[in-house]
Amino acid sequence: MTIEMEPQTTPEVGGMGHSVKRKEDPRFIQGQGEYIDDVNLPGQLWLDIVRSPYAHAKIRSIDASEALKIPGVAAVITGKDLEGYKLHWMPTLAGDMQMVLPVDTVMYQAQEVAAVIATSRYAAADGVAAVYVDYEPLPVIVDPFEALKPDAIVLRPDKGPDKQTNHIWHWESGDEAKADAALAAADVTISQDIYIPRIHVASIETCGCVADWDPVREQLTLHMTSQAPHAIRTVLALVAGGAGLPIYEHNIRVKTHDIGGGFGGKVPVYPGYVLAVAASFLTGKPVKWIEDRSENLQADSFARDYHIHAEMGATKEGKITGLKVKTIADHGYTDAAADPSKFPAGLFNVITGSYDFDNAFVEVDGVYTNKPPGGVAYRCSFRVTEAVHAIERMVDILAHDIGKDPAQLRMENFIQPEQFPYTTPTGWEYDSGNYGAALTMAMEMIDYEGLRKEQAEKRERGELMGIGISSFTEIVGAGPSHTFDILGIKMFDSCEIRVHPTGKVLARIGVQTQGQGHETTFAQIIAEELGFPVSDIKIEYGDTDTAPYGLGTYASRSTPVAGAATAIAARKIKEKARHLAAHLLEASADDLEWTNGKWSVKGSPDRFKTIQEIAFAAYTNHPQGMEAGLEAVDYYDPPNLTFPFGSYICVVDIDKGTGQVTVRRFVAVDDCGNIINPMIVDGQIHGGLTMGFAPALYEEITYDERGNNLAGTFMDYLLPTAMETPAWETGKTITPSPHHPIGAKGVGESATVGAPPAIANAVVDALWHLGVRNIDIPMTPQKVWKILHEKGVAP
Amino acid sequence: MTTQHVSVTVNGEVREADVEPRLLLVHLLRENFGLTGTHVGCDTSNCGACTVHVDGVSAKSCTMLAVQANGSTIKTIEGMANGADLHPLQQAFWDQHGLQCGFCTPGMIMQSAWLLEQNPDPSEAEIREGISGNLCRCTGYVNIVKSIQQAAQQMQAAESAPAEPAAAS
Q1: ipTM score here?
Q2: How many CB atoms lie within 10 A of CB A283?
Q3: Domain annotation for chain A: domains and CATH numbers
């Protein structure tokens, strides 16, 4: 079910609203993609990494002598070697410090301890096995609440005499006094602890790079898996500058090639990248580093790990009046989140969600533990999934507590369409929305009333069936320069368009596809604006020597920011084309009008010039006084964020004998504003739903009390297969963003954000009559069976 | 380390190499033969990005040694198209948006081809089970299932269609 948007261009042109088949696919379906491990350079060496078996330990000594005897092993690099270049620490994107290699202490299991450089992949692995490290185990802190106790050992003594604590930062938003007053005055108050566990994006391609330092040209080319190549280039230049190395930003070229999934995990700078650069600098040869899956699952940055305590107040009729939330954020041993610098807890204060109430207060405290860096995204804009999970669980608990249907309670609390732009009690200005329309469509698609009847009948028979709703509001498209930066770099994004004389187009963008289909959708934006057919437009990205500077693709910011830049750059070209057309038509520019890829004389539709004719003239017959050529660039600074939303409803059946939860149906109605390519939007939602389904039921990175990672392979960290994954049903409403040039909002992550609470709400709904108020995700058979057993339902 | 001689027929072409006995088949294909369409996504045979056909049988090439494949006939994603003509599965994955980042796609297509050889008319449940050894993180599988259904229909239609009459000379 979809509210249709009528395309304004022909299918041949393929502008917005057309399901244009993807331009990037021919190479992928024929095995001709070029992912990082497909890049091989002449004379290339291999880098492999010795990792710590302990979560916290002193390094007494490192003996590489046996490793160096292995044929093919060229060198072993340790933290002490890097210390000589001041390269043993590097800054994180959150402004904390992270070890490249430890000089004396390891802080988490699988931390990098030494790098082996060899002539082949296998020799490097042999070398890793032969490096002997003598460790002295130290006490381990896995639990952030333990870390905050006054007598806890201090994990980061390097932070200076004023910061001898495991507490990293405190952040708060909203008005505490007003929230307290609202809760005190409420007819009904509910409170709930909710843990959002540590998870890992686990893109099917792991991370890696080929660092290529050319000592003659003093040029560093870094082929790497990065969602943010320009930011990486700048960070590399700053790190090299700090180390006194002669590697300057104009001589650094970051190339990303094709990326096999990112989801936030390929935003940070990992030690392996820096080690490969250092090794190439030392050897003068290209050095390749490709992590294996276990390294990826144990050492790369993690998401979530939020311990939330929420309190909500409401009238006895169920009108929400206040919300108060206190959260402990486990960041592991360093804050390596990629959050904008003013937002250490991301945009978590979007936690008031889709609901209209005046009083809210949110506080978050970041904490160090002996875990790998946490706090990167898992396919969501900065901490939005945690916020949405909390509010959608709380609303559902409130509904069940006062005995009101959860759909009805949402309808009665939604911000209404006429209230937009709507300022939330934590200060965000929502751009547009029609929350009731999305929920109504979802209820019709799934036959909500019929399901409630079926559920009542089944409950009579003792069968466990639940229905769960999530009516989420996202906050994406970071962001306006007055508020948003990463390491000081403002979060604009960019597009440069060049129209060639024969009417073909090359456009370069500052964002970086990892499967989103930018080569197609950005061409469609240009086709929409200028009338060139999509087939005549080539989109390039991922080469910092050629693409304009941009902050990259994460937090659903490509369409909201770079998509806007693309439309604006195209409009600059259209304006120049108008003056060229006026010259060609011997008319006044003011007398021309634009229709379907042509400038024509108002009232004389026969007198026109096509954009292709105008492009040719730009190089062959431009008027005196006008610059030749037809090019434009735009660096877009968004005036606000965008706020996609949707309503999801799912039905679960629970096996009383095993605790197995089966998602029988899942309907997702999304509103991402105007749609560039409906096929791609649906694909983004299917994938996002699956990455919401996964942590709801399967995925969790757990640690034992010694800090051992218990989910370090795909045998233990369960990605859903086609067997478990539901056949997703999607619908759309369209509420354009009023401030975005093409009215779009971004869609890549909505479903990952919205899906988990729908599933959690359904499972709790199935068990509420047994006295179950909350189950933390993942709702594994073991966890659910234990509850059923305690309640006397399961044997 | 001593090496062993391996001779295999890959996509119709005899390829030879002297390799360490421990070399994985996927590395023989990717690094010795330059066929980088076959990918590595895990170390535990879970993800299926490395799926190829060995003597007509779907195999995870990261879990097989190159020397074990000696003398065998191997088909990889690079051998699926017939010149400029895409294999029906390749065409269907493109038509149905059955891929996003593309990293799992070669393995997914190879596994799907094996599935359709075994069962030319699979139900949705049989398709989902048939590709359950191949992980995709992007698509949510919906459009992969549609792609395989489209290819199955096309391949069956081609199978049952009368042979094209010889061109008049």
Answers
A1: 0.97
A2: 16
A3: 25-33+493-636 (3.30.365.10), 36-138+207-290 (3.90.1170.50), 306-478+640-790 (3.30.365.10)
